[in-house]
Design brief:
The chain has 6 helices and 13 strands. It has 262 residues and is an alpha/beta fold. It binds S-adenosylmethionine.
Length: 262
């Protein structure tokens, strides 16, 4: 019989998932490198430009940008992840500004050449909150600056899915339930350790963690970007980093949308 242990979001998600598990996924550095090259291409970036990485997690993509000579500002609500990211920057002697805050608090004006929301880190708020965030990002970009955002689409989500992955510590389960009524995806995380303890992530959704994500159709995201003031919108498939880019292939679990501040 399993012992069940509740873990906080920080212990479970930040440590077990983002730090321990993500970094053990084979080819993840290669994946991040390709993603960064794709972003440079579609956002027309050049080293020296200033980038805001919102919800930067453990700073994996931010480090790639910093190595290439970009001025990176990374922000994440999880202080554990920001501490980890800062240490990794220090290990490599990389320059960058990393700080822990809620992305809703950003208050920049005409400052960035690009803003990134990667890994499906959009949809943590209600519709009004998500739109407000887009407007704040728009304000923080320089004219001509681009927002590159990965979002969860509604089109490929049906009922409940379970994904098991083997980790060094045991078996990690992500259970996802999409609610058509609420238009959000509820995620539950478990880890069955090798000594038969089941670790369960406690729900702390009040702090906008990774357990409730609002999903949008590509058409809804287009309307939202337009309302926030972005133009020249382009969409790409969430896992397709081909250069030259292929514009909007069939809808996927995650899609990318890029908009320009005029
Ligand atoms: C799916 S992870 C993506 C991390 C990183 N962008 C990547 O692709 O590896 C989502 C991140 O969003 C952060 N997050 C959640 N709510 C946030 C908020 N309100 N403000 C800032 N960061 C937030 C979490 O701490 C987590 O690191």
């Amino acid at each position: 019989m399993h012992t069940v242990e509740g873990k906080t979001w920080d212990e479970f998600w930040a440590h077990l998932w983002q730090i321990d598990y993500r970094h053990a996924i084979p080819h993840i550095p290669e994946w991040d490198k390709k993603l960064v090259e794709f972003i440079e291409h579609v956002c027309r970036l050049k080293p020296g430009m200033k980038i805001l990485d919102l919800a930067c997690g453990s700073g994996d993509q931010a480090r790639h940008f910093a190595r290439k000579g970009y001025h990176v500002v990374g922000l994440d609500i999880a202080s554990t992840l920001i501490r980890y990211a800062k240490n990794r920057f220090k290990d490599e002697n990389l320059a960058g500004e990393l700080f822990s805050d809620d992305m809703r608090n950003i208050d920049f004006m005409d400052e960035f050449d690009s803003c990134l929301i990667l890994g499906g880190s959009f949809g943590y708020f209600d519709y009004g909150g998500d739109l407000e965030l887009l407007k704040k990002i728009h304000r923080g970009l320089k004219p001509g600056g681009r927002l590159f955002l990965v979002f969860r689409t509604i089109d490929r989500l049906y009922g409940k899915t379970r994904i098991w992955s083997e980790t060094d510590q045991g078996w990690l389960l992500c259970e996802e339930r999409y609610s058509e009524n609420d238009r959000v995806s509820y995620l539950d995380w478990f880890l069955v350790t090798k000594d038969n303890t089941m670790l369960r992530m406690k729900r702390e959704c009040g702090r906008s963690a990774d357990c409730v994500i609002r999903c949008y159709s590509p058409a809804e995201m287009t309307a939202m970007f337009t309302e926030a003031g972005f133009v020249s919108l382009k969409s790409y498939g969430g896992n397709d980093f081909s250069i030259p880019p292929r514009e909007l292939p069939p809808e996927r679990l995650r899609n990318i949308i890029v908009g320009v501040k005029p």
